[in-house]
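It is worth pausing here to work through a concrete case rather than discussing structure prediction in the abstract. The textbook approach is simple: state the sequence, then state the predicted structure, then interpret. We follow exactly that order.
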Amino acid sequence: MTIAVKLNEQHYRQFLIFNILKRLKLYRSPVIFASILTFSAIICFVMYQVEGAVLLGTVLLVVGLGVPVVYFASFFATVKKQVKLQKLNPPRLIYTLQFSEDSDAVAISNEKEQASYRWQDVYHAYFEKECIYLFITRDRAFLIPYEVVENKDAVCNLITSKLGRNRCTQSR
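Step two, the predicted structure:
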């Protein structure tokens, strides 16, 4: 099975958001920070009789909600910049994957290099709504949009059979 992967900006944007927010869960720290400061602000507002409590509560609330807003705004601005740097408009051929039932490896090539990875060394596969994210290592992934695959069920079943269910996550 040979899959020529053409990526567009939308695929790459969805991958970056998936990887940072869903897979790595890097949203947790700003949410915890906002929760702690908001809870502290509520305590200050409850103690409104104490001098300066309302002012402190207001400061805590503004900081507690402002920092996550700035974090997520800068995150999405960075995603937009990264997408533009990849020059995926119009969509272009990025790499070609080759694998089969008989093979114990997945071969990946682009115009500059070729690599082969044994299935047993592949880190994880995520089956999302519009794309498969095949992580060769913890930090390196290959995107396989369903629109470039002739038979997505066959590809998903092949990857699942090669990796096993414990290294595959179904989200779609």
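Step three, interpretation. The longest strand covers residues 92-98. The beta strands are 2-7, 92-98, 105-109, 114-118, 124-127, 131-135, 141-145, 168-170.
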